[in-house]
Structure formats: structure tokens, C-alpha cells
Amino acid sequence: MPPILQHRLADIRRRVQQALVVYGLSWLASSAVGASLVFCLADWLFHFDDTGVRLILGLVVFTTTAWVAYRYLVRPLRVPFSDVDLALRIEDRFPGFNDSLASSVQFLERDGDPRIGSPTLQQAVVRDTLSRLASLDTGDVLETREVRRIAIVALVVCLVAAVIAGLDTAQTSLALRRLFLPFSAPAWPRQTSLRLLSADLEPLDQQSEPLRIARGDVLKLFAENHAGRLPDKVTLEFRGDDGRTITEAMRPMTVNSPDGRSREVAVGQLTALKGEIEFRAVGGDDTDMAWRRLRVIPPPVVESLQVTLTPPPYSNRPIEKLPTGMGHLQGLIGTRVDIV
Q1: Which end of the chain is less packed: N or C, by CB atoms within 10 Å?
Q2: Which tens digits make up the pLDDT trace of 298-321?
Q3: How far is residue 193 CA from its own chain's centroid?
């Protein structure tokens, strides 16, 4: 093989392999990084707490990446490129050869075999072809527009992923762990952590005994997000002995705590009728607050009432014992009242 032809074919073979590697790696990066980015963002937005869903998404990324790697990287690189194939590619770029370049390569490979033609004629074709090849620049034989296009796509996808990861590395790490380690990764940190407050803005202890309220009274409740701002929608859920859950919207408002701070809360109320009531607040991504119990008890009643009025000494009036059950009082200033 003449040095000039050998050098040109080796250079084109190297360029072909480089183009195939860049093309395959670009497809691989675009698919793997792009799919991971889309699924991680979806998990961040919608919180796929079901491990089965995250397992399926992770398998989709893995199988897609494996298929792309085989289709666009492994299989193309396993294809052999003979000197004749490369010569034909040069002839596609420079049609003036009229198949003489591929023929010359075949003549040289068979070392002037007379069975394929006159050796003298073969040598003449080879000399003419080599002289023409020496005056040509074969550096642009390959069409790399498609390679550049997919490389730019891969670069953009990787840059977008890098920017998003750089904005919050902790959440990016958590998203990747949830995608590729679905059974051991922790849950997303909540943006909302609701707690219930009493009418005097004191937290209701989740571990305390059930609240007690007289039948017919109204329990006023406040809910606040001690992890940040109050969600746009907060609801009060409650259920009775029949197990049916009723939901009512809680009204957002701003109240002043005893220390003078303004607090953003949602207010709701429960009317105690009978039995035992369970209640909780739901809002934002806090949807599993523990149920609090409210026990409805009979209101206190007066079984008997006896009032005795002792007028002041200056009045010289006798002690007056009101009829049983009578509680409407009237007397002079200084009158002593005894109630049984």
C-alpha cells in the first residue's frame, strides 16, 4: 500500500471512529441525563412516595440507557471499516474518481493479480488515482452535521442538569437516591408542618389525654405551619362514631400572640354534639397529621339552688331566704349573699 493512500485511509478511519464515539456518547448522555432529570423533577414536584413507582422509573432510565448505549455506541463501533469501504466514502465526496479509487485499493490488496485484469493496466490506474488523491484535501470527507447537532443537544442537557444540581445539591442528591435506590432513600423534606393551637394559641399536645368539651359548646381551633408560610388551603377534618369524615375549609387570618408577634394561622371550629370526635388539620404536603380526640361530655347542671340574703346592719332588715331554685338577686349595698 503506498504511504499516501495508507495515510489517507488511516486518517479517515480514525475520524470515523471518533465521530462514532462522539455520536454514541452524545446520545448516551442525552438519554441518561435527560431521563434522570425529567424523572427527578417530576418526583420533586409530585412526590412519588410509592416505592413501586420510583422503581419503575429507575428501571426505565436503566433500560433506556442500556439500549441507547448498544444502539448508538457499541454496535456502530463493532462494524469493521475496510479500506474499500473508506475508498468508496471518498468517492462519494469526490465523484471525479469514477470508482478508480476503490478499484485501486482492490488492485493493491491483491498485489496486481492478473485474474482481475492486466497488471500493467492496474498499475496505470493506481498511478493516476494516487496523483489525483495527492492534490485533494480529504479532511472533510465525513459529514459531521448530525454528530454536531446531537453533541450540542447533549451539552445543553448536561449544562441544564448541572445548573439545577448546583442550585441545590442536597435536594439533587436526594432526588437521585430516591430514583436509583427507591427502597432505602428517605422521603422529601416537607414544606408544610401543621400544628393545631388552642383558642389562646397554645399548641395542642399530641400525646395528651383527649380534650373534653360540654355538649353543645363550640371548640375554636387554630392551625399554623411552623416550618414556614401557611399553605393556600388548609382544611379541618373530623369524624364521629360512624367513621364518616367531614372536611371544612379553615379561614386564613393573622393574629397577635401574647408576646406581640403576628402569626399567620387558619381558624376553624367544631360543634360538640355527642360521643367522641376525632379531628386534624390538612394542608400543603402535610396530609398525615395524627388524629386528635375530643370527648363530648354532658354539660354541668344545677340540681338545687338555695340563696340567703343578709342585709347590712344599718338597714335593720331581717335575713331573707329566697325560694328554692330562685337565683335573681336584689338587695341593698352591703348585703351578704350565701349560695348553696
Answers
A1: C
A2: 888 888 999 999 999 999 999 999
A3: 18
User: Which element (helix H / strand E) includes 296?
Assistant: strand 292-297
Query: What is the C-alpha to C-alpha distance for residues 285 and 228, in angstroms, rounded to an integer?
Result: 12
Regarding pTM above 0.85, the answer is no
What the block records as the C-alpha cell of 268 is: 376553624
Q: Which amino acid does the sequence have at 304? A: S
Distance CA 223, CA 336 (A): 46
Whether residue 40 contacts residue 60, with contact meaning beta carbons closer than 8 Å, is answered with: no
CB distance 83 to 109 below 8 Å: yes
Neighbours of 72 (CB within 10 A): 20
Which helix H or strand E contains 276, and what residues bound it? strand 276-283
Burial of residue 205 (number of CB atoms within 10 Å: 0-12, 13-18, 19+): exposed
DSSP-derived 3-state class of residue 221: strand
